[in-house]
Amino acid sequence: MDKDLVDKILHEADIVTTISAYIQVINKGRGYVSVCPFHDDKHPSMSISKDKQIFKCFACNTSGNAITFVQQYEKISFDEAARKVADMVGIVDERLSKKTKAETIDPSLKPYYACINDLQQYYQYGLTIAEGKEAMDYLASRNIDAKQIEKYGIGYSPLDGKKTIQYLRAKGHSLHTIEGIGITLVRNAETASDSNAGRVMFPLKNADGQVVGFSARRIKKDDTAKYINSPETAIFHKGNVLYNYSEAKRTARKDGYIYLLEGFMDVMALEKAGISSAAAIMGTSLTSEHIKMLRRLGCEIRVCLDGDGPGQEGMMKITTLLTKAGLPFKLVSYGDDLRDPDDILQESGAEALLKRMNNLIDAFDFQLNYYTNTKPLTTNDDKKKVLYYFMDFLKKMEPGLIRDNYIAKLSKVTGFEMSLIREKINAKRTLEAQEEVTMSIEQVETEILHPEQIIKKRLLKAEREMLYYMLSSVDAVKYFEKNIDSFYYPVYNSIANFIMEYVDETQHTATISSLIGEISNRGGDDTDELISKVSEVSEDNIHPPLIEGETKNFDDCAIAIKEEKEKIFDKKKTTESLSGLSLEDQKVLLASYALRQAQRNQKKSKNKNK
Questions:
Q1: How far apart are CA 237 and CA 213, in angstroms?
Q2: What is the DSSP letter of 483?
Q3: Staple partner for 564: which of 330, 435, 459, 477, CB 3.0–4.6 Å?
Q4: Which among 6, 4, 61, 51 has a CA at the least distance from the CA of 512?
Q5: What are phi and psi of 390, to 5 degrees?
Q6: DSSP per residue over 294-306, as a string?
Q7: pLDDT of residue 312
């Protein structure tokens, strides 16, 4: 991918926001930390620098920028990761549409995608035939117009299910593939029939907008199920699908929110009321994959399931999951009106629906309302469980009117005195503060004992110091090219070459994030090592600060590098020369080497005393 495009993506993307789209990020002081997803991490050992736009795990040494995080987290190519980050920040560039070999679809799934795409077209055609009029009448009764029919790809499965199979066979799809997309259990070509026959078809798409399954809605009132969803197949996993997610993600980041609803009729109702950022779980539980999908949007989740008992219980479960995941969310408050969004639209109009959807409350109030109205607490054990459930929330709040208000509400629901609740909160805060001090001491010990923090050799120190200056100073880069030319340590030398190339092309220093982007874009077996080392060196705080116009720091580094290189090469030459010599000759050569070493040390001592 072109360097200027990578730089543009990294400039627009914020690493904290990007990483937050995948894992929970915690603000700690002036920086951010997170549990590292690249090893079995128990405590937050990954540091995220908003200033430098890089991340670094001090346990497993994994590091990088926004693009390389996505690359490693999703196990995809650098170019594909760059495209995903660009999509997050809304960058439009024709170069982003170019595909790489690494992004091709799994060959084993291609027949299923081709087959289900043809089936989708057939279902859409089904609405246009005479038999499809009943389906069109049903959609009209739900106020779903032609525009929404086209947008959501709604169709109809003709009553003669055998013809559906015959159509797919005529398009060149095998019986095995047709069975594989979940519309029939094939016995033989003569008896195979579409199990969705006579139903309105709502296509279900994955996060990329590819149809992977269907939800089939009955038209006639009979004893069959109202909805039949596709079974699990090679391409359809219900735990990975949120209805309308592929469309809603385009607007959710801009709007700053996404509504999480019960079913697709609610999604369409919100669209008619002017809300396009909405997705539905379609009666399933919220899964860990759903959580990941919602996290990637980087916006507030607004939960609104059915107003009946099961719907409210579902919202309680979702509240727990979203809280644990650390995602920002609110819940739609129903008050005394328990109608679904679609029913409100049909019966009271768009304005009433908008008013309902904007009546938002936080998790604390929703849960207290749940225990007051839906499931009142009756036993002391239940009251204690609810009390301790809210402890984590309350202990994070600073004392004041807002916290007192919450404590008063909790006291009313549980029956416990406010003074008792305050006592429990303070006790928990004290205990966790002690644990925090212990953990901080462990972290300090880890940092002190970390091998990369212990610089043992003069040459290593000098080269690392010079490289540190080169990361932030064009003058340092020019000095290096003129006076040093190369480092002894290969990893430092490789990084120096990347820096020189970047400065030569742009005439300015590379940000740490951009340099990591250059290294990742090039690829190579040493990519991870180079990125890790760049991150480490950039975090150094042991080197003297640069004074503009002066080269003393550079001179000191250059002298140390030259002298230590001479020692190494002299020792190497001496060692090689010993091979094949007699014992007496070896003694003479070693004595000569010792004399040269003593002369160097004497010269260094004189220079130091001047």
A1: 9
A2: I
A3: 459
A4: 51
A5: -90, -5
A6: HHTTTSEEEEE--
A7: 79
**Which pair of tokens denotes residue 88?**
């997050």
Burial class (CB in 10 A: 0-12, 13-18, 19+), 38: middle
376/371 Cα distance (integer angstroms): 5
Lowest mean pLDDT among 366-375, 496-505, 542-551, 553-562: 366-375
With beta carbons less than 8 A apart as the criterion, state whether 230 and 279 touch: no
Among candidate residues 86, 45, 41, the one with its CA nearest the CA of residue 63: 45
Threshold 0.70, pTM exceeds: no
Candidates 251, 253, 222, 321; CA nearest to 281 is 321
The 8-class DSSP code of residue 77 comes to: -
Task: Give the C-alpha separation, 134 to 131, whole Å.
Answer: 7
Picking from 480, 454, 452, 451, the residue whose alpha carbon sits closest to that of residue 538 is 452
> 267 with 204: CB under 8 angstroms?
no
Asked if residue 153 lies in contact with residue 211, where contact means CB atoms within 8 angstroms, the answer is: yes
Q: Count the alpha carbons within 13 Å of 588 in the hemisphere toward its beta carbon.
A: 6
Asked if residues 410 and 421 have their Cβ atoms less than 8 Å apart, the reply is: yes
Residues found in the chain: 610
Question: Tell me, what's the pLDDT at 544?
Answer: 86
Distance CA 533, CA 120 (A): 51
